[in-house]
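pasting input
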Amino acid sequence: MAFTAPKETYPGKVYPVGMGTAEKAVIVGGENVLPFHGFEGEIPGKPLVALEVQDVPPQDWPKAVRDACESVSGDPVSWAKHCQDALGARAIALRLIGTHPDREDRSAEDAVKTVTDVLAAVQVPLVIMGSNHVEKDSQVLVAVAEAAKGRNCLIGKAQEANYKTIAAAAMANDHQLIAMSELDINLSKQLNILITQMGFAKERIVTDPMSSALGYGLEYTYSVMERIRLAALTQNDAVMQPPMLADLGMYVWKIKETTATAEDMPEWGTLPERGIAWEAATAAAFLLAGAELLVMRHPEAVEAVEKFIAEMEV
Amino acid sequence: MALTGVQIFKLLPKTNCKKCGYPTCLAFAMKLAQRQASIEDCPDVSEEAKRTLGEEAAPPIRPVTIGMGEKAVTMGEEMVLFRHDKKFFHPTVYAVQIKDTAPEADAAATIDEVLASEMERVGQHLRIDALYLSNESGESAPLEALVKLAAEKAPGFPLIIAATDASVASEALAYVEGSKPLLFGANAENLESMCRLAREKGASLGLVAKSLEEASELTEKAKAHGVEDLVIDPGARKAGEILRDNTLMRRAALKKNFKPLGYPILTPVQRDDEMLETLVATVGVCKYSSIVVLSSVKKWKSLALFALRQNIYTDPQVPMQVEQKVYNIGEPDGAAPLMITTNFSLTYFIVAGEVENSKVPSRLAVMDCEGLSVLTAWAAGKFTATKIAQFIKESGVENEVANKELIIPGYVAILSGALEDKLEGWKITVGPREANAIPAFLKSR
């Protein structure tokens, strides 16, 4: 019985979404096959990893990852420059966590200043994220979208409760938009439909089906991503065709496995290796499930994932 | 793919004799197609039809077991390409390599590390499952010594004995005859002698190919030499090639019913860079490897890979559940808050994570609701005032807390009145609806 490789082609493809400007601009998505299936189709770009930077010092991050940015994380501009210049980040994700009412409750004006300063300091594409407080994000993201006009950023996250204002701001200022729903393929689809019904181009959406950490619900994110990608490719479902974001660092760096010391949990092995492996393995699994854009925290985890991505190209 | 009922019907005697227990041959054929009946139930079927249907009924990926006793592992029998369709069946086997050139003390230490790797996570026992003992020396004595050491320290433990010369491996295999090792390293050059050795010693056989084409030829030849318990290493080493070959093999077996590639896959992922090795192992676990060979035991690496395998091989139809009990978060004293939620693992992880984030030492009572989330459990009548009251009373938490106050999820605020009736002397407080509001809620108390 002779073997013929059962290669498959699909009617659908993932939209290529551009981010950034000039020679640092990148494209995520654009492939017409399952993740890393370059042997049976086209994968024009490669997955993009954005290093996370925050507007306030990351006091709530566990030591293993806080140590990795301690010297620069006191201010977002030096932190972002460090990521770009010293670490070679291809993109930066600025999270305006300090605007959350339960945190520093920084104002929209404060956020605008942070965004403007960071944009002045770096050339790589910028993902700008709010604090995930639906009301506050509406104010903050609208203001920063205007301040970042012309830089073709990815802005979010727009959720069911606040998508109208955020999508309108992204549209008015020529940015791309993150659409986030909570771990459900139908909710994800519905939100994309609502956003496009406002006149927002579906080719400018990045879907965040909600991330999770290895060992803490990863299987849900993994399968929702696989199902979204299969719907995009096999059913040619246009609403399901935006590239996908896995905003995973925030889920990884709060669980016990990345925070407990080796003294407390001797059977778990050493930090920071344990935490780095946890973040990198979470990332690898989501890449295999279909994520094209990752937001991560530990530079060594990012380095490992970049090597992994290089080895996945055949 | 599988034969239809009508195709099977054509192979039956068509006498409607009812001896099989079904009214007609067609009804029997339909049951056979659904794999709810066995062809053995038909006394008059021809040998040829039996053979055809027997092959048809065999699982598309052949089961292969290595090791003996409770540590034995079975691979193969997978039915789907994507885990959301149906549970991935036999979890990936993690094997750790020991070279026969390593000093005996080092080899013994690695074996001890492997045996000590077992840990419990969300109710399951997880471990490194096998040893991959490789004949780097090219000589017989060192391999023999290593296999002897492993057999003595870990009787019945799944062993993969990697060698390419049957005469060199022969003595080593004698030590583990009867405990089903995997003899790994058959190729186009040594196939006949390796098949003979595997047959003699009751070992399954691992084939190393240079391509999928070659792999499919090798399995057919091995079968002709009388060895059917096979494992395939299609030769891929780069992560992307592993994904490609594993995907094409799984598809060929499941979608084309291509028997020559319907065997478990062995994937070596050893790298000097162990962080990268961990990620290449991720490809094996997510994408169809039955055995992943690792370079060493590192606790951080094992922990991450155990969690990954557990996640990927979870049944998508059966929610993961955590044990019913009152969990301490931080070091709660008598005045610490007591909260309750259900035992759906995701609910537990999210709630416990947010309680931890709050840095307020607390007690979290997790109630068995068959793995349903709070609202679903409430709607299904599993998270009711009566049941919650019973659980709280039986848990004994009453003796640990100074104030009898129970915080319930905001979504089931409606239960607070009934709960105050059922739990006499307790104050019921309605907590936030969403977990992310827990830190603010706890801190503001």
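fyi Chain B has a mean pLDDT of 93.
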